[in-house]
Amino acid sequence: MQFTGKLVQVLPAQTGQGKNGEWRKQEIVLETDGQYPKKVCVSVWGDKMSHLTLSPGEMLTVDFDIESREYNGKWYTDVKAWKVTTATAADRASSSTQQPPQQYNQGGGYPQSFNKQSRNADSFPSSAPPAADSFEDDLPF
User: Fold this and answer.
1) pTM of the full predicted structure?
2) Given this structure, which CATH class describes domain 2-96?
3) Which of 9, 46, 94, 119 could disulfide-pair with 29, CB 3.0 to 4.6 Å?
4) Domain range list for the chain
5) Which pLDDT does position 96 carry in this prediction?
6) 8: burial class by Cβ within 10 Å (0-12, 13-18, 19+)?
């Protein structure tokens, strides 16, 4: 999966020693574009960001995986980046021009524009149905 967002915060790097050697984790907070922007904390393991100089407000493109795990009866979800790059102008344009999904209004169905799109003149019969006395059917009731 991939998304492009504005860098909001770079959290302090964490390092440690594990059974496979030393590990390093850097977490960054990105804000998505759109009508209702969301903030997403992304974990970057190893040296996947060593080639970048990050500053808040910069646009980044993140390729990531989402993983959940259970610990002591609770579930925890991580957003783990496997590639982080500076967003190009093309990335920003494509992320801002994506069409939002059609929203369903809880009490009133789909918005009126959706209903108008699905109803055109071709979907209705052009002539009236046959009169009741001239209509034969083979139904037993």
Assistant:
1) 0.59
2) mainly beta
3) 9
4) 2-96
5) 47
6) middle
SS (H, E, C) 31-65: ECCCCCCCEEEEEEECCCCCCCCCCCCCEEEEEEE
The closest of 29, 27, 61 to 45, measured between CA atoms, is: 27
Token pair 């990335």 is at which residue? 91
Helical ranges in 7-62 per DSSP H: none
* Interval 67-85: pLDDT, tens: 999 999 999 999 999 999 8
**Dmax of the chain from CA atoms?**
88
Residue 58: half-sphere exposure toward Cβ, Cα within 13 Å: 16
Q: Which of 112, 85, 105, 99 is nearest to 34 (CA)?
A: 99
Q: Which amino acid is at 31?
A: E
